[in-house]
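Batch job 17 of 40 flagged for manual review because the log was empty.
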Amino acid sequence: MALIHAAPATPIDVRPFGAQLGAHTTHALFKSAQLQVVRVVLKAGERMAPHSVAGEITVQCVEGEIELSADDRQLRLAAGQLCYLTPHCVHGLLALSDASALVTIALHG
């Protein structure tokens, strides 16, 4: 099944899901030649396995609380907090509570 991405100049709702968080899953909001934005949804205790990408990344916690592993560091992000990661940084996520985050990836190539 093909992913549906937002068209250019189209508003995208990124407000917290609140009580409806459990009805949502991780999905790409859009992808262009140089940028991708993903809404990550994790239930408490769920993980996104450590990995790396060639581009710079931001992780912004929208709701809940997540633990971001970044190389050898563990960072706790609460709703409203954002973290920047350098290219090739090995990173992963652990939901400390039901949470969602916006992950922005600068694409190269």
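Reviewer: the log was empty due to a logging misconfiguration, but the result itself is present. The radius of gyration is 14 Å. Unflagging and moving on to job 18.
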